[in-house]
Amino acid sequence: MRPDTPAENVDHTAEAARLERTAGLYPEDAEALLLRAAAHLELSGDRPAATALYDRLLSASEGLSKDLENPTLIRALKASNLWEYDHEAEARAIIDGIRLTAPRDPAPWVIIAEALESHDELEAAEETYTEAARLLLPSTTEAAPSTQPLLYGRHRVRRMRGLPHDDWDTLADSLHSAPVSLDELHDPKRVWSLGSDNPAELQAEISRLRAELGAYREALSRPFPVAVLHWPAPELSELLSAYPTLSTEYPSHEIHLSTIETSLRELSSSGTGNLGIVTGTVPSYEAFAASEGSSPDDVTLLPQYATTLAARGRAVAWPPETGAGCWCGEPQSYVACHGAAN
């Protein structure tokens, strides 16, 4: 989650420094923490320092690059940032490279397309969105939540170019649930109305902007998931070897996996939303217990540990998206594995 609070309300430089210090304490979360730090630096106006953080993440000498979850996303963010302080040629080169690698994650596509769009490269932005849609959307009748920003961005650019709706635009319209329609939100005339002297037109535009901003902030402010703790088989074996009293909580790995799925289904059926799974490791759990001044064999620490991992952005959403692999790590899909009884 990238911050979007204006610099006058937050000391973004201080927050970036705090996040960098935290990354040193939790190296397993360094990627997410340093990305947030870079975003704060961008908001503070110190774009060269933000680029330095992106380079630090991507640098082999720092020892972080080999463990990155999404290096393509970092390159996309770097390109977008570079273009904002007159490094257009380098930004374009990175964008071209990303398009050539055809990443399977929609986030880098959205970032580079928005960078092109913000610099009035509307045709190139539309081509980028369309290229990503062809790669990542199996049909024009459904879209996973992670791919919906592609459809909305593509709809916006095509609206600005005055192009007629196609099937993907229709799909974007059907997915959009805010009170103001996409056609209205993406109407180029909205920009002109901001310069109007007519109070009624200005008030209408303010209402539209509030609706759009409200939906955006709602998405950004979603709390971290209600997460259930998952131990992979090797980690659970190591955990029980070191702390055998926890065997009452985990009689076997098979029972542990079954309990996770059952617990999540019960939470879902009771109306609890935003569910997730966090994966534990023994060293991380031991460090957490030490930070709490407790022993790892204290069973009451386990849900606290899960909540802490979720708050640090380590949760994976449950249930997995259609066609995705099972959360337990087995090679088959979720539907064929723990989701079979759904």
Q: Describe it for me?
A:
By secondary structure, this protein is mainly α. The chain has 3 domains: 159 residues, Serine Threonine Protein Phosphatase 5, Tetratricopeptide repeat; 46 residues; 92 residues, no CATH class. It is 58% helix and 4% strand. It contains 16 helices and 3 strands. Helix 4 packs antiparallel against helix 5. The radius of gyration is 23 Å and the shape is globular. The model has no long low-confidence stretch (mean pLDDT 85).
Describe this protein with a few key phrases.
globular; 3 strands; 58% helix; three-stranded mixed beta sheet; mainly alpha; 3 domains; Serine Threonine Protein Phosphatase 5, Tetratricopeptide repeat; 342 residues
What is the element layout, followed by pairings?
Layout: H1 12-25, H2 30-44, H3 47-58, H4 71-84, H5 88-101, H6 106-118, H7 122-136, H8 148-160, H9 167-175, H10 182-185, H11 189-193, H12 199-220, E1 226-230, H13 233-242, H14 253-269, E2 275-279, H15 282-291, H16 301-311, E3 316-317
Parallel strand pairs: 1-2
Antiparallel strand pairs: 2-3
Helix pairs in contact: 1-2, 2-3, 3-4, 4-5, 4-6, 6-7, 6-8, 7-8, 8-9
Task: Give a quick precis of the structure.
By secondary structure, the protein is mainly α.
| Structural classification | mainly alpha
- Percentage of residues in strands: under 5%
Name of the top-level CATH class of the largest domain: Mainly Alpha
How widely separated are the two ends? 30 Å
- Per the CATH scheme, the topology name of the largest domain is Serine Threonine Protein Phosphatase 5, Tetratricopeptide repeat
- What's the architecture of the largest domain in CATH terms? Alpha Horseshoe
Give the overall silhouette: globular
The SSE string, one letter per element, is HHHHHHHHHHHHEHHEHHE
Helical region count? 16
